[in-house]
């Protein structure tokens, strides 16, 4: 068997091609393959809450310095806001330069409001309580409920408190730290087993999509979709490329390192499907556990770069398509509202449309019913959204680790250059009980 077909990346690519072919030639059969994709994603999501808890607790307890942990958290939030603002601005600029909606002359009265009913209801829930409700939502009703619902931010809050408590306990907390560390190894091993099912998940997801929507679904709004893909590519290779260069690394090498995960996300449009593997690979690069454990889970809700581009690009597109004039104050309002609504969108059903509806809710000038225009191609745009968000969070982790001095640069360069072969066991924090045990 060729080496390409033996690799996970090769198997995922082959599954992608097979999925497209099955969807094109056997659409009815392809529609029945949806459970393969859904099942794979659910299997991965099953271990995410506990894995995030273990990595964050182990990272904080291993760091032994709560000031360092707090410093990393503050730097991460600053980084997220700066990059999100740049992404929102890029979406606005490209929309005005290329004018994807100009000439469509859509009659708003002829659009079907029924298609937006569910999204509008969720958007109202998002905007009704504002910032206070969002912050209160970070606190779980019980610890068990946080894990049961799979709310990553709630799990993260409890994990930070748990890790801080272990650190303050000192020697008395070490036995618990050893158990948490060992449990994380078990979970990473489970993840290694589950990721072997990725080709099946990819086959089911892409076959269903092509069979359900057809390749021709892009024709009507092709300009918008193409422009969005270009926008995300520009952001990744130019903006994130500069960030990586400042950190001392190459964006191209980072993308090559995560090629298997990117292929899975491309097919499933879900970055959740690779979250455990992403965390494992970042740790393997030599980044401190506490940094990986804080930046990645937080970034999944607060650092949605490609999502931010989508909000502003789609908002201006709807205004152009419906011949709605928008003023500079409207644009500034879009930017300000989107900075808030884009946070915490992760995990919201139909999050892209819901957040866009919540954003437009604050700008009466743009008809919210125009969201119907992008519904038919939202899945295709979701590919670029998921890919861009994933790459953005990987770059954020590397950048903040470099900023804080939490990365083994020699190891990272060796891993990205392909001269450091992956190990079966995940990287243990230097000096940790597991690391000592592995050394013997």
Describe the structure.
This protein is mainly alpha-helical. It has a single domain, classed as Proton glutamate symport protein. The chain is 74% helix and 0% strand. It contains 23 helices and no strands. It has helices spanning 3-6, 8-25, 27-31, 34-63, 66-98, 117-128, 130-136, 143-149, 152-169, 174-194, 198-213, 222-247, 251-257, 259-268, 275-284, 289-302, 305-321, 328-341, 351-361, 372-375, 378-404, 409-417, 433-439. Helix 17 (305-321) crosses helix 19. The longest helix is centred in the N-terminal third of the chain and has 33 residues, at 66-98. The chain is globular. The two termini are 37 Å apart. The model is unreliable at 423-440 (pLDDT under 50).
Strand and helix order: HHHHHHHHHHHHHHHHHHHHHHH
Mean pLDDT over all positions: 77
User: Distance N terminus to C terminus?
Assistant: 37 Å
pLDDT < 50 runs, ≥5 residues: 423-440
Q: What number of domains?
A: 1
Number of strands: 0
- The shape, in one word, is globular
Q: In angstroms, what is the radius of gyration?
A: 22 Å
Q: What is the CATH level 1 assignment?
A: Mainly Alpha
Backbone structural class: mainly alpha
Beta-strand content: under 5%
The CATH homologous superfamily is named Sodium:dicarboxylate symporter
Named CATH topology: Proton glutamate symport protein
Q: Could you say what the CATH architecture is?
A: Orthogonal Bundle
């Amino acid at each position: 068997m060729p080496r390409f077909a033996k690799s996970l990346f090769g198997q995922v690519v082959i599954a992608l091609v097979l999925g497209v072919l099955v969807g094109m030639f056997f659409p009815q059969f392809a529609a029945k393959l949806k459970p393969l994709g859904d099942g794979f994603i659910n299997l991965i999501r099953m271990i995410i809450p506990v894995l995030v808890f273990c990595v964050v607790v182990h990272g904080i307890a291993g760091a032994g310095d709560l000031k360092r942990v707090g410093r990393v958290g503050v730097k991460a939030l600053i980084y997220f806001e700066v990059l999100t603002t740049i992404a929102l601005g890029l979406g606005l600029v490209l929309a005005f330069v290329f004018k994807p909606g100009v000439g469509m002359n859509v009659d708003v009265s002829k659009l079907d409001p029924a298609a937006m009913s569910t999204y509008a209801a969720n958007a109202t829930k998002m905007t009704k309580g504002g910032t206070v409700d969002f912050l209160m939502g970070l606190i779980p009703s019980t610890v068990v409920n946080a894990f049961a619902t799979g709310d990553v931010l709630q799990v993260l809050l409890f994990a930070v408190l748990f890790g801080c408590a272990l650190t303050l306990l000192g020697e008395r907390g070490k036995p618990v730290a050893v158990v948490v560390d060992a449990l994380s190894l078990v979970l990473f091993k489970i993840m290694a087993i589950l990721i072997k099912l990725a080709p099946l998940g990819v086959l089911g997801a892409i076959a269903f999509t092509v069979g359900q929507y057809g390749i021709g679904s892009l024709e009507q709004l092709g300009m918008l979709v193409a422009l969005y893909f270009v926008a995300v590519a520009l952001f990744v290779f130019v903006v994130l490329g500069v960030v990586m260069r400042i950190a001392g690394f190459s964006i191209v090498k980072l993308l090559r390192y995560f090629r298997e995960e990117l292929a899975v996300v491309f097919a499933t449009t879900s970055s959740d499907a690779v979250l455990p593997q992403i965390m494992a690979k970042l740790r393997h690069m030599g980044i401190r556990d506490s940094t990986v454990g804080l930046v990645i889970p937080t970034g999944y809700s607060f650092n949605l770069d490609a999502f931010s581009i989508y909000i502003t690009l789609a908002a201006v597109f709807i205004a152009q398509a419906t011949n709605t004039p928008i003023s500079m104050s409207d644009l500034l309002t879009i930017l300000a509202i989107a900075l808030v609504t884009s946070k915490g969108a992760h995990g919201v059903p139909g999050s892209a449309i819901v957040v866009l509806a919540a954003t437009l809710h604050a700008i009466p000038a743009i008809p919210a019913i125009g969201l119907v225009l992008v519904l038919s191609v939202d899945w295709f745009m979701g590919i670029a959204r998921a890919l861009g968000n994933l790459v953005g969070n990987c770059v954020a982790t590397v950048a903040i680790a470099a900023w804080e001095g939490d990365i083994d640069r020699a190891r990272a360069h060796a891993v990205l250059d392909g001269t450091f072969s992956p190990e079966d066991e995940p990287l243990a924090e230097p000096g940790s009980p597991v690391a000592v045990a592995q050394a013997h």
